[in-house]
Design brief:
Structural class: alpha+beta
Bound molecules: adenosine monophosphate, glycine
Strand content: 25-35%
CATH class of the largest domain: Alpha Beta
Helix content: 25-40%
Distance between the termini: 44 Å
Shape: globular
Number of helices: 14
CATH topology of the largest domain: D-amino Acid Aminotransferase, Chain A, domain 1
Number of domains: 4
Largest sheet: 9 strands, antiparallel
């Protein structure tokens, strides 16, 4: 099979790495890719949010199967455009991608499906939103309805903070994403992520993970795209995972199908777990980044068979071969991230590191210049390892980190602390 992966971060490097292990892959192209991906696959420079451009490339290059990494092409309808052209795609339609692209849509689906989630109000003007906050009190969560690159959620400790956040959102701080606002009850508990594949009808769990969103050790400081992740997440026990499937995910899938927008692809459910019960925080219509890196390290070559089965509607006969293993990924970021950071620093030591089924450095924001790998993004490398225990995996990842020469970069030394404690 000739396969095209859309995207160019650490998530897509790990997807490419897993796909290449599968003998069914004859040729792999990644668009746009990055310096790490270029070392293992062909890269193509394409506007991946333009369905016409991608469809033309797919036809010219005789691509059989397209795997969509990020949410933006899905929300832009790229999967629809490809399916209309008869191309097999892993990833939801534009309509189904509203599960990530519109928080109000997701809350309405949860209501209809009776799925446990935070109580909420949905507003199109500031005065009504503020009145709701005054009535509910704080802490309370203010969310821009649309895609805001992970920045559209404000956890307000006071009513005044919530009012200010509402003014910011309706004032255009998040562009079109903030034209509508969802205000939610603040949920207590521990967060974990649950990943399932869906084919419109059936659902197949492929793993749990926990990430570390804050930039600083001990989970302090500003939010980031994620500074590290590990899988499995012990807080998401088999029993809680089963409840999440029965009470949240399957009812959501049934509601989506009933509305004529069956969901196909990976569904990433962010869950809040309190007193043994899961509630939905959010859905994403893609793999998490960096959660994907630990899932791919654990699944290996079968990941491609599973994504292929989801795209072809065969999940009812698919199964995951689980190993009793643990995986961790530690993000090396450019100094200053998630604020301003410099680009162009040369990264050394990478060629001394192993690249095996248990130890891999996935590249996020890297470029190649004069034969050298340089940092070109905020999150730069995802140092990923697998072991019989999380401790073994973590020790292995940090040994790799210590061999990487990137003085302009930093990482958190405590990834996995909740599960390691
Ligand atoms: P979201 O973009 O919806 O994932 O929100 C980003 C982060 O904000 C989540 O991962 C949670 O840590 C936090 N969050 C969002 N909604 C809530 C809520 N209702 N209660 C508590 N924390 C929340
Ligand atoms: N790591 C969080 C996300 O991908 O949304």
């Amino acid at each position: 099979m000739n396969i095209l992966i859309l995207g160019g971060g650490g998530r897509e490097h790990s997807l490419a790495w897993a796909v290449l292990q599968n003998p069914k892959c004859d040729r792999l192209v990644v668009a746009p890719g990055n310096a790490g991906i270029a070392a293992i696959a062909e890269c193509a420079s394409l506007d991946i949010n333009d369905g016409g451009v991608v469809a033309t490339f797919v036809e010219e290059e005789c691509i059989d199967f397209v795997i969509v990494g990020p949410e933006a092409p899905l929300a832009a309808g790229v999967a629809d455009r490809l399916r209309d052209a008869g191309v097999l795609v892993f990833g939801p339609s534009k309509a189904a991608a509203q599960l990530e692209a519109s928080k109000a849509f997701t809350k309405a689906i949860c209501d209809a499906a009776n799925a446990p989630t935070a109580a909420y109000g949905h507003f199109t003007d500031a005065a009504a939103a503020k009145a709701y906050v005054t009535d509910q009190g704080a802490p309370i969560v203010v969310k821009a309805d649309g895609l805001a690159a992970g920045k559209g959620v404000i956890i307000a400790e006071t009513v005044e903070q919530a009012h200010a956040a509402i003014d910011d959102m309706f004032g255009g701080a998040f562009g079109g994403a903030g034209a509508e606002v969802v205000i939610e009850e603040f949920m207590q508990g521990e967060e974990a992520s649950f990943f399932v594949l869906c084919d419109g009808t059936d659902v197949l769990p492929i793993g749990t993970a926990q990430d570390h969103k804050r930039v600083g050790e001990g989970d302090i400081g500003p939010n980031t795209g994620g500074m590290g992740a590990y899988s499995p997440a012990p807080v998401l026990t088999d029993d809680i995972a089963q409840r999440a499937l029965d009470e949240i995910i399957r009812p959501t899938m049934a509601e989506m199908a009933a509305r004529g927008m069956p969901y196909q692809g990976v569904l990433y459910a962010g869950l809040m777990i309190e007193n043994g019960a899961p509630r939905l925080v959010e859905y994403n219509v893609r793999f998490g980044d960096p959660e994907c890196q630990v899932l791919m390290m654990r699944l290996g070559a079968q990941a491609m068979d599973l994504m292929h089965a989801a795209a072809e509607g065969r999940l009812n006969t698919a199964q995951v071969n689980w190993a009793e293993d643990h995986a961790i990924t530690v993000v090396m970021a450019a100094e200053g991230y998630p604020g301003d950071y410099a680009k162009g620093a040369v990264i050394g030591g990478l060629d001394t590191l192993p690249a095996t089924g248990s130890q891999m450095v996935f590249h996020a924001g890297t470029s190649q210049r004069d034969g050298k790998i340089t940092a070109s993004g905020g999150r730069v490398l995802n140092v990923t390892a697998r072991g019989a225990s999380l401790r073994e995996a973590a020790d292995s990842a940090y040994r790799m980190i210590d061999a990487i020469d990137f003085p302009e970069g930093f990482c958190r030394r405590d990834i996995g602390w909740r599960a390691l404690d």
